[in-house]
Amino acid sequence: MRQGALAAQVRAGEEELVAPIDHGETRRRVEAERRCVAAVGGGCLAPVAAHHDGRRLCALVAAEDGSWLRRISGDDPEALGRELASLAVMP
What we know:
Elements lengths: L23 H17 L7 E5 L4 E6 L6 E6 L2 H12 L3
Antiparallel strand pairs: 1-2, 2-3
């Protein structure tokens, strides 16, 4: 299975230009993933990931050197992010 999402950026007030290509379910999943990663303080270079499979949000955090990896899942992106943040300090 492959996953991906495209984003379209428009000026404020011109959202109607991209409304026909908006897929609400995909947008909700991507927003949940982004909230989870943001709650950890993750970014493009952080060893943090989140994926919404349509039922639950699955997330992981890893050591930068790859020595450990923690996976968790849940329904609340912010709570999951906080839990990931607490796991990130574990050796």
